[in-house]
Structure formats: structure tokens, C-alpha cells
Design brief:
With about 350 residues, the chain is of the alpha/beta class. The chain is about 20% helix and about 25% strand. It contains 10 helices and 13 strands. It has helices spanning about 15-25, 55-65, 80-90, 95-100, 120-130, 180-185, 200-210, 225-235, 245-250, 270-275; strands at about 1-10, 50-55, 70-80, 105-115, 140, 145-155, 165-175, 215-220, 240-245, 285-290, 305, 320, 340. The chain has a 7-stranded mixed sheet. The chain has a 4-stranded parallel sheet with strand order 10-9-8-11. β8 (about 215-220), α8 and β9 form a beta-alpha-beta unit. α7 crosses α8 (about 225-235).
């Protein structure tokens, strides 16, 4: 059993543990054990999680799906002071350390801080203080064989950060996570968007929570511009969706981009967005339908249903009805004569 340090971005703090649990389940690792002895007693928002894993391959599998995690390192040392860190590093198994300190290898050391910025000269001084480590390889800042990380944790409030960090961590970088997809799939770069297009990072978090996998069939009953389904398609799922607003489905109406006073074209649809990312083969179909009136057979059909229901804030709440406002169910064979109307839904706690 080896100990690994998971370093998280300071985003969506409430989803960190849930995503870690989902990633472990997808990787077949079962229930993870978080090591509490490294927790800071006064900071529940720390970006550092320590977990025990059987192998380095398990650590790599964790990062293969994580969006919030920045990296994972094999933990070599920990301390509440630099001196304690040095003592901890000296207790790390020498044989394990020697494997990554060969003279014919290259390496680099990076310094990262949380809740406080330090100068580059200060980082260099910290690296110089690590000269006791048996790193006999060549220093190489670009594409080294091995990368090592020194982390300083100054607590959770940058306004009251102490002069010295609360915690020190040192380890060997094992893998970086998938955070680059957040920028790759950014809504700002997407061809087709709407007023309610969801942030890319949230859509990938939702796909991870649902543990979406290759060859699955995923449905979004409030598909809109398809942000959630794009994330699911990235993970290899086939996607299908429904929406009551035919203008979104068919790519008609005015563009939602600020400053663009033009109408949408034939390529303004989910299929074109999937094509933009090379995922068109994952597209099944998008249907105009009212989620309140089920159109699906009453049998298992989808591996996952993931959606962000409308709240009537940026877009109104819609349902199928008649222009005369009659309140009755519409037979399926008459749907072609129905119109999409805007109504105020009532909320019940029953």
C-alpha cells in the first residue's frame, strides 16, 4: 500500500470528494480510504487529499477522469514545519527513492503554494534547501524523466496567511488530471450556445457523478444546446435528448451570443457542436418533446439520465398546450397541432 497526495483546484469545493469517489468506482478501486492524519484542523477547504492506494497504476486511473484534481503525487514526506518535512523525507524508504534518483535520469522540482503567493527567488531558495535529497540526475526543466513537487499550505484565508506555512508536502509527480478539457470545451469557444448553456466544468462533473462510460446511452430530457451531452460524448457515450423548444432543436431564432444580432443557421444545433469536437459519431437524435408527457416506452432504455431542469429565470418554463389555454392532456396523435406555450408551474411538496 502506497500513500498518494491529490492536489485539487480551488473550484466547486463541495464536489471534490464526490468526484473522487466516482473516479475510484469507475477505475474499479472500490471505496477509498482518506488519511485523516494530514488534515488541517482549522481548514476544511484545503486542496490536499491523501489516499492509500495499492499501486501507481491506481493513482493514474484516478486522474484519468478527474476534472477538479490538478495532479496526484506519490507522497514522500510531510511536516508542519520544514524541519519536520526533512525528518519525514529521511524516513522514506531509501530503496524506493533510489529508483527515481539515478545518475542517468533527468528531473525537476516545482514549488506550489496555497493561499499565498511567493516570489520566484523564494521558490529557488526552497529548492536549494532540498539538496540533501539523493537526486543525482540531470536538472532539466522541460520534459524531465521525473518531476517532484513541494507544496506549501498557508491555510484557507489568504488575507490572514501566516509567514510560514501550516503544512509542507513533498512528492513525486505521478500524473496530471484532465483539467485541460475545461478549456478545450469552453462555452466561449463553442459554435452553438444559448442563454442557459452550462459551464463546461460543471457538465464534466455531472458526467463523472453519473459514471458515464463508453458505449452507454445517455439522455438529457431538457437538452437545450446540449452541453451535458457533449461531456458525455467525450467520455464515449452515445447521446440522445429532448427539448420542448423547437427553435433550439432546429437552430432557428436569434443567436444568444452577446453583440450578435443575427439569426441562427442550419449548423446551429447539437450535432454541429459534437462535430466541432470530433464526436458526431456519438450523436443519436434530438427530439421536440415535453418532458412532462413521457414519449418513451416503460422499460429500461438509458444507462443514465442527466439533466439541468429549467428554473424559469434566464428562460421561461414551457409546456405543451393549446393556444386557447385549455387545461387538458393532449392525445399523442394530436401533438402535431400543439403549440409551445409559456406557463407558470406550481410547486408541490407532496
Amino acid at each position: 500500500m502506497f500513500r498518494y497526495l491529490c492536489h485539487y483546484a480551488h473550484d466547486h469545493l463541495d464536489f471534490r470528494l464526490q468526484e473522487l469517489t466516482s473516479a475510484a468506482s469507475l477505475a474499479g478501486l472500490g471505496t477509498l480510504t482518506l488519511t485523516k492524519e494530514y488534515d488541517h484542523p482549522d481548514c476544511t477547504l484545503s486542496p490536499f487529499f491523501v489516499v492509500d492506494l495499492l499501486s501507481e497504476q491506481h493513482a493514474v486511473k484516478l486522474t484519468a477522469r478527474s476534472i477538479l484534481m490538478k495532479s496526484v503525487c506519490e507522497l514522500w514526506g510531510y511536516g508542519s514545519t520544514f524541519g519536520a518535512l526533512v525528518d519525514s523525507l529521511k524516513q522514506f524508504p531509501a530503496a524506493r527513492m533510489e529508483e527515481y534518483c539515478r545518475p542517468d535520469s533527468s528531473f525537476k522540482i516545482t514549488v506550489e503554494t496555497f493561499s499565498k503567493k511567493v516570489s520566484q527567488s523564494h521558490k529557488v531558495q526552497l529548492i536549494d534547501r532540498l539538496q540533501f535529497l539523493p537526486l543525482r540526475g540531470k536538472l532539466q526543466l522541460t520534459n524531465p524523466d521525473y518531476a517532484f513537487c513541494l507544496f506549501q499550505d498557508y491555510g484557507c484565508n489568504p488575507n490572514t496567511a501566516p509567514s510560514e506555512p501550516y503544512r509542507w508536502f513533498f512528492g513525486r509527480l505521478v500524473a496530471d488530471s484532465q483539467r485541460e478539457v475545461v478549456d478545450q470545451y469552453s462555452v466561449k469557444k463553442r459554435h452553438f450556445i444559448g442563454n442557459t448553456s452550462m459551464d463546461a466544468q460543471l457538465t464534466f462533473l455531472m458526467a463523472n457523478q453519473a459514471q458515464v462510460q463508453k458505449q452507454q446511452l445517455v439522455c438529457d430530457p431538457f437538452v437545450g444546446t446540449g452541453s451535458i451531452l457533449i461531456a458525455c460524448a467525450h467520455f464515449g457515450a452515445h447521446v440522445v435528448g429532448t427539448d420542448i423548444d423547437s427553435r433550439i432543436i432546429r437552430g432557428t431564432g436569434k443567436s444568444s451570443r452577446a453583440g450578435e444580432n443575427k439569426t441562427r443557421g442550419p449548423d446551429d444545433n447539437l450535432r454541429s457542436s459534437l462535430r466541432q469536437y470530433g464526436l458526431e459519431s456519438k450523436y443519436m437524435d434530438i427530439l421536440v418533446a415535453d418532458a412532462a408527457q413521457s414519449i418513451w416506452k416503460r422499460k429500461p432504455l438509458f444507462d443514465a439520465i442527466i439533466t439541468d431542469p429549467p428554473y424559469g429565470i434566464r428562460e421561461g418554463a414551457w409546456k405543451i398546450g393549446s393556444k386557447k389555454g385549455k387545461d387538458h392532456s393532449v392525445p399523442e396523435h394530436l401533438y402535431v397541432r400543439c403549440y409551445v406555450l409559456c406557463f407558470s408551474y406550481t410547486h408541490s411538496h407532496e
